[in-house]
Amino acid sequence: MTDSRVVHVSAHYPPFLGGLEKVVEALAVGRRNEGLEVGVLTSADRHALDRHALDRQATADSPGEEDFVRRLRSWEVAHTCVIPGLLGELLRLPPHSVVHLHIAQAFVPEMVYAAHLIRGLPYVAHLHLDVGPSGPAGFLLRAYQPLVLGPVLRAAASVVVFTDEQRSAVSAKYRVDPARIAVIPNGVGEAFFYDGERPLHSRPRLLFVGRLSVQKNLIQLIRALDGISEEFETTLVGEGELEAELRQAAEDLQLQNVRFYGRADGAEIRDLYRSADIFVLPSEREGMPLVLLEALAMALPVVATDVPGNRDLVTHGQNGLLVPVGDPPALRRALLSVSADPGVYQRMSQASQILARQYSWPAVSAEFEHLYDQAAKG
Predict the structure, then answer these.
(1) For 32-68, what is each residue's pLDDT tens digit?
(2) Percent of the chain at pLDDT exceeding 90
(3) Backbone phi, then psi, for 190, in 5-degree steps?
(4) Which of 190, 272, 279, 329 lies at a 20 to 30 A Cα distance from 297?
């Protein structure tokens, strides 16, 4: 492992809810537990902190962070986290620092790139989500990606993606040398692994975990449950800007047994996984969803949309079923199919368990340590 101080730079960090944030925490805390130097630069998300920090500090899953997490004043502008003081903090880092840049939106990558240009600060660029242009402002993203994000990625010591498919796409789209693109999957914590056979409840229990946002496409699940909601117990875990809209859609369709659970962390979220039967992820796009790895470790069959990230972890007919984006009837049929035959259900459950064992945070962290060492040596 490198002796350099590794500084994770991310727009958000727990208790902010999201898979990216959990990844940052797992890597930072893991390095800290090894007795190595680590830091985190992130936003001071008052909305999340005010409601959840005290509860989080009271749990065994939440290490103290006062000595390695630096939260900076921030504003949300057009769904982008703007942290005015970030560049100054980066320029003041010790000379032996290596930055681990976590990319899912604008501003943060540009600040790390600027620090690299000004003082030669080495960084590893971790591309969690590469969003395609959509909507009225899509032209801005079409300009931003090649003109701004492209140089950020090309200047990185290494670029990290989750799959070989993503490596090919990033290399072609941003003109990054494939030799500098590392494929490193997300990991899953040992506490999420479920041993033993899963009994299928007489009324199967569906579980979704994630932000209630456009990306997660929960409206497809709401519409898929139309006419069959009474056959399942459905729990939607998470918070987000679309909660009121989704609640209204469920009410308009007169869905039964649909519970908006809110936020859950630590032992609470593991209990929700354990009590479920089928995990559902109807996303429009994904990187490598951490919640999907957690569900597989919990031996849950998965019904998910057929998009990169999901299809890298779900093999249709083996550990779950894949359906097209925007096709509620196909999702409805898949939910009924997975729960119809206990024998098929058990085979999918076992396949999920076996696949999840290929992923672990210690193995993932070791791969990153190699990249940090390369970055430090220049």
Answers:
(1) 999 999 999 999 965 555 544 444 444 444 445 568 9
(2) 77
(3) -60, -30
(4) 329
For residue 378 the two structure tokens come to: 């220049």
Are residues 214 and 176 both part of a single domain? no
Regarding whether 127 and 16 lie in a shared domain, the answer is yes
Residue 14: which CATH number? 3.40.50.2000
> How many domains are contained in the chain?
2
Co-location of 158 and 306 in the same domain: no
Q: What is the pLDDT of residue 301?
A: 98
**Cα separation, 126 vs 257, whole angstroms:** 39
Q: Tokens 């031996």 sit at which residue?
A: 299
Q: What is the domain range of residue 260?
A: 190-356
* Angle subtended at Cα 21 by Cα 292 and Cα 110, rounded to the nearest 5 degrees: 120
Q: Do residues 172 and 255 share a domain?
A: no
Amino acid 157: pLDDT = 98
Mean pLDDT, residues 116-144: 77
* Domain shared by 215 and 158, yes or no: no
Measured torsion, CA atoms of residues 273, 276, 281, 282, in degrees rounded to the nearest 10: -150
